[in-house]
Amino acid sequence: MTGKKIILNINMISIAIGAILFFTRIRLPELITNTISSVGNMIEASQHDCNRNAFCRNGFKKQFLQINVYISYRLSECLSFL
Description:
Largest sheet: none
Order of helices and strands: HHHHH
Oligomer: single chain
Shape: extended
Low-confidence stretches: none
Radius of gyration: 16 Å
Strand content: under 5%
Mean pLDDT: 77
Number of strands: 0
Number of helices: 5
Structural class: mainly alpha
């Protein structure tokens, strides 16, 4: 992937917008906040299902030997408490 494709990826754009909103402490309207919260709750549940499927398919020990999977799993677990 080229640098332009990485920067213009929808995930990177949404992270940048979220960071700007966070650091400038701009409050979004309640309708938007509730919608984003509901979508986040749905995504969190599906992420846990994906993690469980990966563990069943590859085995727990083999799964955590891959550092990128370990970091991803730990981040999702930490962020689920926020």
